[in-house]
Amino acid sequence: MQRTSMLYKERIQTLVAKLSCGLLEKEEAISLSLLCMIAGKSIFFYGPPGTAKSIVARRIFCAFKSNKFFDYLMNRFSTPEEIFGPLSLSELRRDKLIRKTDGFLPMADFAFLDEIWKSSPAILNALLTIINEKKFRNGDSMENVPLKGLIAASNELPEKGQSLEALYDRFIMRLIVPRLKEKESFRTLLQSQSAQDEIQIDEDLKFSNEELDSIKQRAKEVQIDKNVIDVLENLKNLIEAHNDKILKQQNVEDEIIDVSERRYVNIMEMLRVCALLSDRKSVVLGDLILLKHCLWSVESQRQIIDDMLRQAIESNSAKFICDRKEYEEFINEMHILSQKEERDNIVEINGQKYAEYELEVLVNENKQKVKLLCDLRAGENERRPCAICNNEKLSLLDNIYFEFGSNDCKIYSYSHGYVHGYQHKLLAIEKYPLIIKKDKPKLTYMQKNLYEKTRQELLKIVKNELQNCQKEQENFIENNYNSFITNISEYSILMDSLKETEQEIQQNILELEKLENKIKGL
């Protein structure tokens, strides 16, 4: 077996880059297909016609030294002879139905079957045995099939009621291959030449059959981190709860998410290979990102799986803890020191300040909305008449009074009763417009210096926390690096908590920076 000094992750990166050359927005399809082929698993491409599914498949097989590649476009008239080989005439004369399989699927190391669901039941049933058992019945004997990996494609999902569930379940990864999404990609497409099916790959980058066997054997030694097991248990519980809800509601529009035990086993085998090819000795949280391509059966389940996966990972995702006590105490103290008397509902008339409240009250025996003015010179629990202002002229109301409490302002209406005399009715309890304080004296030069020194020290601490939080994210990505994830944004599902903490710290920095001028003005 030829060996290379290159790390697996560097080798995979280089391979994906070369295989993706000239193909727009197909890095993910290339990368995940490569993983499945190395791990010996089947992958299903689902997408509209003209999205380069067949080119991706043919490019993938350039990454392997074997030239035993079978490629066929299926249709409803396809015959077993076209897929599994013609019957041997010499054997037929001896009353034996033996196929000549050289050059056909039973002798291929890798295969691509386009429009797979258009094929006949006889072909699909034989295909199920090949994928599942790596066996092919040829006449009276069961022959071993060397198939390492199978890529199938279609612009439709298997039709219900056609007994295709078992075969569909054998495709461990189901990948949607959409049309171009980015505007720039479309511009590039218009100016580009047709992409080639095959591409030249350096021999030292290619995988031989012997190396593939070695990788699978070594992958068995890869451990599974405890938090990965915890997430998978959480995910399984969420799927079961989702299915129970559908069954109870008897909702025929929604389909249950059916994940067989065999599927879980195959997924874990694939993730072990993924970990090994990421130069790790264990399956980590970063590998679980790939599950979003493994658990859905119909398109409507994709977002549900994404949400479940995020929820299952949440309690096990990376976290960064900050001590906020000293910061919060300083911010609160600065808030109190810089608190102004004026609020939104404070108005000034003829040099005097009033609290203004808009209420519906009885004025001159007519109910109307008025802006009541409450004199801020009133003491606590002192009842005074409200006023209204017309053309900057104040008028006191004889039937509506206010009373300031420590934290509120009560407004009463008064009426005269012949039996009980004057009666009052509570109309509203409004928020007190301000905290009554004597004018605060200006801070001394030394006090300002002390506060500024504290601010600078806290700013230094918080900026250091930001660096540590960002470093934690970098370390987390490095420790969870997955050779087959081509977009770093995919890791966001694992780092929600770290990202939230980073945003909070950045906000803290802004608050502390704003306080510099406030302290100068105190």
Largest sheet: 5 strands, parallel
- How many strand units? 16
Gyration radius (Cα, Å) is: 36 Å
Q: Quote the beta fraction.
A: 15-25%
Structural class: alpha/beta
Please tell me the CATH architecture of the largest domain by its name: 3-Layer(aba) Sandwich
CATH topology grouping of the largest domain: Rossmann fold
Number of helices: 15
CATH superfamily of the largest domain: P-loop containing nucleotide triphosphate hydrolases
Helix content: 40-55%
Distance between the termini: 76 Å
Average residue-wise pLDDT: 87
Word description of this protein:
The protein has 522 residues and is of the alpha/beta class. It folds into 4 domains: 208 residues, 3-Layer(aba) Sandwich (Rossmann fold); 92 residues, no CATH class; 86 residues; 86 residues, no CATH class. It is built from 15 helices and 16 strands. The strands form 5 sheets. A 5-stranded parallel beta sheet has the order 2-3-6-1-7. Strands 13-14-15-16 form a 4-stranded antiparallel beta sheet, with no helix packed on it. A 3-stranded antiparallel beta sheet has the order 10-11-12, with no helix packed on it. α1 crosses α2 and α9 crosses α11. The longest helix has 35 residues. The chain is elongated and about 120 Å long. 28% of the residues are buried.
What's the short version?
InterPro entries: MoxR, P-loop_NTPase, RavA-like_AAA_lid, RavA_ATPases. The protein is built from 15 helices and 16 strands.
